[in-house]
Design a protein that fits this description.
Radius of gyration: 22 Å
Structural class: alpha/beta
Strand order of the largest sheet: 3-2-1-4
């Protein structure tokens, strides 16, 4: 049994309820519905019911039996807000959450906060920054946990002759880049993993982020480019994976000075 298969079996033995707010993402919807039908998780789709159903129909997905939490259901949302406000460990006041709960992402996180879901899966449409900020301002961190964390899984096995065969890798790393990624990660672990685990982990994440980042000459669809532009213009993305700013601010006076008009 492969490592990934062992995870599936553990999930089936202790099925959890997972809220899915990114119903408008093809990849997320297909994966969520498959997980439901395979018995890996109890899925809760979060979004306007009509839009969720229309998206499922468009993708040819059977979502019969999968509940939908609709942010437009005022009675449901009002009751949910009251339950959140009654939580002794709530992170933000009811007024803060009420302004944001119409967002499927925030609604999913509030559902998790009150205990109606065991987890929320997002971050394909939303940036990691947006997801973490929403989760931190709705649920917060577990006591004793100082910062949000993550996990990367690469499943590989010995192929003989010093070679490896890769069975699974993060979906945002192109297949052609996997050999370079593994070589770099292995090198970092060999040279620094034991001396400073925290620094080694940060280095691994930086490497993965860099390999998955948009590169010069890469061809992207108009929709992908629009999403990047919106993320930069909204301030959600301020730095590249190496920590360099992706945009700078120029005042009118500075701009005029550069063109010799000041």
């Amino acid at each position: 049994m492969s490592f990934i298969d062992s995870i599936y079996e553990k999930a089936k033995a202790d099925v959890k309820t997972i809220a899915i707010p990114e119903y408008d993402n093809d990849y997320m919807m297909k994966a969520a519905v498959k997980a439901h039908h395979d018995g890996i998780a109890n899925i809760l789709l979060v979004g306007p019911a009509a839009e969720v159903q229309a998206r499922a129909d468009e993708l040819g997905l059977d979502i019969a039996g999968i509940p939908i939490a609709d942010p437009g259901d005022e009675t449901f949302v009002s009751a949910l807000l009251d339950r959140y406000a009654a939580l002794p460990e709530k992170v933000m006041p009811k007024s803060f959450i009420a302004k944001r709960i119409t967002s499927p992402l925030y609604l999913a996180l509030v559902i998790e906060a009150v205990g109606d879901a065991d987890g929320t899966l997002a971050g394909v449409n939303a940036t990691t920054y947006e997801f973490i900020m929403a989760a931190n301002s709705t649920i917060g961190l577990k006591p004793g946990v100082p910062t949000a964390s993550g996990m990367l899984i690469v499943e590989a096995e010995d192929f003989g002759g010093g070679a490896l065969i890769v069975r699974a890798a993060p979906s945002d790393v192109a297949a052609g880049e996997i050999p370079d990624v593994l070589s770099e990660l292995a090198g970092r672990l060999l040279t620094g993993g034991s001396a400073d685990p925290g620094a080694a982990r940060d280095a691994l994440l930086h490497t993965m982020a860099c390999k998955a980042a948009i590169k010069g000459g890469q061809r992207n669809s108009p929709a992908e480019l629009l999403k990047v532009a919106q993320a930069v213009m909204s301030g959600a993305v301020k730095y590249c994976p190496h920590g360099r700013p992706v945009a700078i601010e120029l005042t009118r006076q500075q701009l005029e000075k550069r063109f010799g008009r000041a």
